Amino acid sequence: MKYDVLFSGFGGQGIILSAVVLGRAAAMYDGKYAVQSQSYGPEARGGASSSTVIISDDPIQYPKVLEPTVYVIMSEAGFQKFGAGAPKSALMLIDSGLVQSRPQCRCIEIPATMKAKEVLGKPIVANIVMLGALVSVTGIVGFEAMEKAVLDSVPKGTEELNIRALELGQDIAQKGGDA
């Protein structure tokens, strides 16, 4: 098993944190190998950013993602810059409230930002909602491993909110996405 995952959105959405948490879940709590890298424009907040993670059952020979197999896209600019050329064999999860375009590959629409705001009152945890959906759809890491990695990674005092966000993403994905 090997997944090459690309996260993209705009600066301030927690795109890099998402990749770090996923890599941590795989390497520290799920017994897998993981490599994470990131890039973002000079704008930082608001500019298109991306982060990648390779997760494998076997040692990783090359640390760069050449062709993602899974995309998690949280902004239209992120889609245009990093997701528009996704191969038909890929899987893409998109934040359906922020991404207007649709890929040619399999696409699962997750209203992460909208649901984070409506259900949790905090749109800032939309990235964690997307991680819950990603784990639910792909099984890339176990849900318990992801919970532990989230708890290790979020600011003190926000643990309960972030676990609720993770569970919300899992629930949305299990109900078929754009619910």
UniProtKB/TrEMBL annotation:
Transmembrane helix is among the record's keywords? yes
Keywords, alphabetical: Membrane, Oxidoreductase, Transmembrane, Transmembrane helix
One GO molecular-function entry = oxidoreductase activity
Q: Transmembrane stretches, by residue range?
A: 6-27, 124-143
Listed InterPro entries: 2-oxoglutarate_synth_KorC, PorC_KorC, Pyrv/ketoisovalerate_OxRed_cat, Pyrv_flavodox_OxRed_cen
Q: Which residues form the Pyruvate/ketoisovalerate oxidoreductase catalytic domain?
A: 11-169
Q: Specify one Pfam family.
A: POR
Annotated PANTHER family: 2-OXOGLUTARATE SYNTHASE SUBUNIT KORC
Q: Which NCBIfam families match?
A: PorC_KorC
Name of the protein in its database record:
2-oxoacid:ferredoxin oxidoreductase subunit gamma
- Origin organism of this chain? Methanocalculus taiwanensis
Lineage here is: Archaea, Methanobacteriati, Methanobacteriota, Stenosarchaea group, Methanomicrobia
